[in-house]
Each structure stands twice: as C-alpha cells, then as structure tokens.
Amino acid sequence: MKGDPNDSRGPRKRAPAESSEGFSSATGEQFRKAMSALTEIAVQWEKGDNTGNGSSAAKMLLTTSEAAAVLGIGRTSLYELIRSGKLDTIKIGRRRLIPATAIPKLITTLIEESEDP
Q1: How many domains is the chain built from?
Q2: What is the pLDDT of residues 64-85, one digit of tens each?
Q3: Which domain holds residue 44?
C-alpha cells in the first residue's frame, strides 16, 4: 500500500535503464557469458566429453530460475515452454532441472518456428 506507515521496506528501487536491445548492459553481458558457457558445454557433450572434467566450470544442470535468467524470460514463461514440450527437463527428487544442453536446442527450435511461414 502506497504511503503505508507500517511498511518497513523503504522506498522501492527502479530497474536499471535498458539498452536498445532490451537488456541493461550488465544483463546483456551476463547473458552473453552464460550463452558462451552453455555453447561450450553443448559442444563438449556432443563430442562425447560428458565426464564433467572439461575446462568449463559451468553447471550441467540449471534450476528453473537460472534457466529463466539465462533465457531472459520469467519463470512462468519458462514453465509454459516446459509444458509445451519445447524445453527438456529432468526431475531429481522434487526438483525440476534443465540440462544446460537443452538451452541451445530450445533457441534453435524457437528460431526455426519463427522462420516458418
């Protein structure tokens, strides 16, 4: 409630200004680094080097929040992609995890879908 004297959270902060690409410069750089690491993981995996002993220290499995951040979408949109079958996941216990190799596959699928007439 605006101006609520019992609200101890203090003033709300504004989101950083966005660049022309729709990402703040920090977010854009984080996205590029994450995509680079994911691409490296996917290449190593396809070469058969899935032992986890590669030079990359990147995670092989991402939480839903991490995957959403890498893709630059919200968790609700991420769960819609999972429900539609466009994004592969695995379940370990109660946790739903996204293999890092599924991110480049999703992007390729979305690009192909957007190019179809």
Answers
A1: 1
A2: 999 999 999 999 999 999 999 9
A3: 25-50+58-115
